[in-house]
Amino acid sequence: MTDPELLDLAADLARRAAAAIEAVKRAGFAVERKTDESPVTEADRIAEALIVEGLRAATPGVPVVAEEEVAAGIVTAAAPRFWLVDPLDGTRDFAKGRSEYAVCIGLVEGGRAVLGAIALPATGELFGGLLGAGAWKEAEGARRPIRVRAVPPEGLTVLASRTYAEDPRMAPFLAGRPIAERRAVSSALKFCRVAEGVADLYPRFGGTMEWDTAAGQAIVEAAGGAVTEVDGSPLRYGKPGWRNPDFVCHGGPGA
Question: Each residue of 216-243: b (16+ CB within 10 Å) or e?
Fold first, then answer.
């Protein structure tokens, strides 16, 4: 399959998983706890099964690393090319009835996130990006290209994780920057808002896993932004234990 075809595949599976998640939400669900005490629901499992089965059927030679499989002890080794799947990013917010949750499917090549699709089930939005080919947003049946923005004269719109918004490292990092607004937001939708030019900066101090970021990084970078470690080096994939360091998602010039 060509890279555009792979993006179409990821986007279609993300869209279908989003519909399945909303069906579970309407029907009602229980919240369970994994061994690390993080929440998991039937929606996580149904969405992951749908995505993983679809990816493995369409791309049998490309390994799939998926959050709930890893939590269950299913070990998939990194490869020169592999998928990273978070079937329901923001389960805590989903369980609390909030709207800030996402479906994330990213493809890694040579340690770099090269394409991604993110569906926002609560709003019906779908985002896609392919390095070198640009990024797009689909909403209400229409698809349009998106791009990061230059920081407006009034200053940066900064997004922070709802869980880590008050991390003590945030204030020193932002010191001296012109800030117009700070908002605490959950899930990978923060990448989407930077990619479409609604926000400018998303610093993340606090633990994330590779499946949390691969799709979002690909979309932001396809839209002209960047996702780096705090020191400015590229955020890479295939790390031991799939754990990310702290990172910064930058929009356009001045971010």
Answer: bbbbbbbbbbbbeeeeeeebbbbeeebe
- Asked whether residue 159 is marked as a ligand-binding residue, the answer is no
Q: Is 212 annotated as a binding residue?
A: yes
Question: Is 90 annotated as a binding-site member?
Answer: yes
Known binding residue 115? Answer is: no
User: What CATH fold (topology level) applies to the domain 3-146?
Assistant: Fructose-1,6-Bisphosphatase; Chain A, domain 1 (3.30.540)
**C-alpha 204, offset from chain centre:** 13
Residues 90-122 pLDDT 10s: 888 888 888 899 999 999 999 999 999 999 999
86 in a known ligand binding site: yes
Q: pTM to 2 decimals?
A: 0.95
> What order do you get walking across the sheet with 179-185 strand by strand?
179-185, 156-161, 201-204, 247-250, 226-229
User: What CATH architecture applies to the domain 156-250?
Assistant: 3-Layer(aba) Sandwich (3.40)
Q: Is 156 annotated as a binding residue?
A: no
